[in-house]
């Protein structure tokens, strides 16, 4: 059975989200209502062609609570930003259904649990920021299948494990990498030299080893490099 999704689907998903979180500053309280056109709701933008929700930007408005699975129904979503709120808990697997997503920002919240393996299903993702949360465990190998990634910020979490040696063969478009202040370890990927557009590389405060300088010598666009408090040569 095929489920038809339309703008009513989007409206229902967002109203369920509103009901699921605390909005202490009443940013959504009155505006997010069936009395107003969905595409005029605070933080919401729709596409001109299909009139489906493409942007959901609710950053820095003090939201509290967890993210419900209903947001996985926003199948035309391209940009999602919940940064700088007080959201917590695990991320629902249903967000892996957002196959059009290009930018995903959850920085400066209180999310926890292991790094979501379903992020590897977001094949068009270009920007990912999970900075300053409490994610744990290794970065799943499926993550390195997102060849479109340009900008990743995973700093200030409790991620552990190693990076694949062929990381930049698999993610060749990377321009900015922020992995600082985690519990990552092991050899620096020798493939770093293949991230030819790399501009910023922050890997400080981990337990990396290896010969970094040999791997970044030809990166002519590299401007910011922070590798303190590792075991690098």
From TrEMBL:
Any one GO cellular component localisation term in the record: plasma membrane
One Pfam family hit: LRR_8
A molecular function (GO) term: signaling receptor activity
Topology within the bilayer: Single-pass type I membrane protein
Gene3D superfamilies per record: Ribonuclease Inhibitor (3.80.10.10)
Keywords: ATP-binding, Glycoprotein, Leucine-rich repeat, Membrane, Nucleotide-binding, Receptor, Repeat, Signal, Transmembrane, Transmembrane helix
Domain Leucine-rich repeat-containing N-terminal plant-type: 9-46
Chief site of localization: membrane
Protein origin, superkingdom: Eukaryota
UniProt cross-references to InterPro entries, sorted A to Z: DNA_repair-toleration (IPR053211), Leu-rich_rpt (IPR001611), LRR_dom_sf (IPR032675), LRR_N_plant-typ (IPR013210)
Presence of keyword Transmembrane: yes
Subcellular location: Membrane
This protein's name: Leucine-rich repeat-containing N-terminal plant-type domain-containing protein
């Amino acid at each position: 059975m095929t489920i038809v999704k339309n703008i009513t689907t989007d409206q229902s998903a967002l109203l369920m989200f509103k009901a699921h979180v605390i909005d202490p500053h009443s940013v959504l309280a009155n505006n997010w209502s069936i009395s107003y056109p969905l595409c005029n709701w605070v933080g919401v933008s729709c596409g001109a062609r299909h009139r489906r929700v493409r942007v959901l930007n609710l950053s820095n408005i003090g939201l509290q609570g967890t993210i419900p699975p209903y947001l996985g129904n926003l199948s035309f979503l391209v940009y999602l930003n919940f940064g700088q709120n007080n959201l917590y808990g695990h991320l629902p697997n249903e967000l892996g259904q957002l196959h059009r997503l290009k930018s995903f920002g959850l920085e400066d919240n209180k999310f926890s649990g292991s790094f979501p393996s379903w992020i590897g299903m977001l094949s068009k993702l270009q920007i990912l920021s999970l900075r300053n949360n409490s994610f744990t465990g290794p970065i799943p190998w499926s993550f390195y299948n997102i060849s479109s990634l340009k900008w990743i910020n995973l700093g200030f979490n409790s991620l552990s494990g190693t990076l694949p040696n062929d990381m930049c063969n698999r993610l060749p478009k990377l321009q900015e990498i922020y992995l600082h202040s985690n519990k990552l370890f092991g050899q620096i990927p020798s493939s770093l030299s293949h991230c030819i557009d790399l501009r910023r590389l922050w890997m400080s405060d981990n337990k990396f080893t290896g010969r970094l300088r040999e791997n970044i010598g030809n990166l002519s666009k590299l401007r910011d490099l922070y590798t303190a408090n590792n075991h690098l040569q």
